[in-house]
Amino acid sequence: MSTSSIRILTLALMAAPLCSLGCGSGTSGSPTGGAVAHGGSGGSAAAGSTGSCKIDPATIDSANYPQGLTLTKTCGTYLVDDIYVQDGGVLTIGPGVTLKFSDNTTIFVGQSGTGKVLINGTAQSPITLTTQYNPPLAGGWYGVDFFPGTASGSQVTYTAIDYAGGNWDGAIVVENALPAGTLTLDHLTIDNNDIADGAVPILMSDGSTTIACTSCTADGKPLTH
Question: Which of 45, 48, 96, 201 sits at 20 to 30 Å (Cα–Cα) from 70?
C-alpha cells in the first residue's frame, strides 16, 4: 500500500463515529440484532435495526461501569435477563424506557456491597418493566428486589411494573427494613401480578414495617402499602 493510501485510510478511520456501546445492528453478543450496552467509563446504549438492546455485562458495579449505566428510550426496548446492581454500581433508567424480562428474572439491588437505582419516568413518559412472554403471562418475571445494600436515594417513580410476581413474593420485594430516605416509591402502577399464586404488589420479606408508596395503584386500585 502506498504512503498516500495509508494516509487516506487513517483519515477515514479518524473521521468515523465512535461508539463503545455496540451501535448499529448485528452487534456481537446481541442475538436480537440490537445494540449492546457494554461496560466502560459510563455506559449507555444505542438502538440497533430491531429497535431493541441488550445489557452486557448485566452486573452493574463500579468495575464494569465506573460512572454507572444509563438506559434511555433511544433503544426502544431492552430485552434482559437478571440485572445485578451492586458493589458501588448505579443504574439509571430514563423516561419512556421499556425493559422486557425473560422468565424467572429479577433486578437485584444491593445484594452485594451497595447498589443504587434511579428508575424515574414522568407522567407523560413512564417507564415499563414487563415480561417477554407473548402473549403476556402473570408472573412472567419476578420483579425488583431490594437488599440491605440498597444505597440511599434510590428511586422508582412513574413506572409500570407488569406481569411480575413469578417468585410468588411480590412485584417489589424489600428484604429488610431500610433506613428512612433509602428508597422512594412514587406513582407506580403494578398490574397483572401473579396474585393467583400469592404474590403481592409490595412485600417486606422480614415482616417489618411497610414502606410508603405514594400515589401507587395495583390493578387499578389505590395501593395503601
Answer: 201
CA distances from 154 to 93, 147, 165, 196 (A): 12, 12, 21, 30
Within 10 A of 196 (CB to CB), how many other CB atoms are there?
10
For cell 414495617, the residue is 209
Question: How confident is the prediction along the chain (225 residues), in pLDDT tens digits per residue?
Answer: 444 443 333 333 333 222 223 222 222 223 233 445 544 445 555 444 346 899 999 999 999 999 999 999 988 799 999 999 999 999 999 999 999 999 999 999 999 999 999 999 999 999 999 999 999 999 999 999 999 999 999 999 999 999 999 988 899 999 988 998 999 999 999 999 998 888 899 999 877 766 889 999 999 999 875
Please give the Cα distance from 217 to 220 (Å, whole number). Answer: 6
DSSP assignment of 134-198 = SS--TTSS-EEEE-TTBPTTEEEEEEEEES--TTSSEEEEESSPPPTTSEEEEEEEEES--GGGT
